[in-house]
Amino acid sequence: MSIILDIGAIVVYEERNTWVGLIVSVVGVGVYVLLVLQQAGDGPLTDVVWWPIMLWTIVGSIVASIVISILWGILAGMRDRDGVGKSDQRDRDIAHMGGRVGQAFMVIAGLGVIVQSALQVDWFWIANTMFAGFALSAFVGGIASVVAYRRGLV
Fold it and tell me: Which bin fits 41, alpha (ψ -120 to 50), beta or left (φ > 0)?
């Protein structure tokens, strides 16, 4: 518990939320892949009823991000009441840069979905390509933001 409090005192509000997003996105994708593979068993992946798993994974990840951010904010607020929820121009610049970096993966996934649709690929693959694009966008954008917090914007 003291590790979380120490991290909460060092990590600013926006960086804390970025870390939460990174952790939750990795766990969420891992849970989704595990559940789909379990449901497929020895059969083909395209036979899996994927959409409820994907939907609940996305909803669960959003809820988990909100709850963890609130709890981490409360713990950080116990150490530094004045700076717990403050953002400045640097935070906005880093968030903007991280969003631009992550957006590239959304574009790539969107192009992949268009090609797959033109080829009439099974919906499983189309949906999972978009899901992977969202996940990679969040993860790579988050990594870029954390690096910018630690090393500064170039």
Answer: left
**Reduced to 3 states, what is the DSSP secondary structure of residue 58?**
helix
What is the dihedral angle through the alpha carbons of 20, 137, 58, 60, rounded to the nearest 10 degrees?
-10
98-144 residue pLDDT tens: 999 999 999 999 999 999 999 999 999 999 999 999 999 999 999 99
Burial tier of 104 (Cβ tally within 10 Å: 0-12, 13-18, 19+) = middle
Structure tokens at 47: 């036979």
Per 3-state DSSP, the chain is made up of helix, strand and coil in percentages (nearest 5) of 85, 0, 15
0.90 surpassed by pTM: no
Q: CA nearest 98: which of 27, 25, 3, 33?
A: 25
CB neighbour list of residue 31: distance below 8 Å, 6 or more residues apart:
57, 60
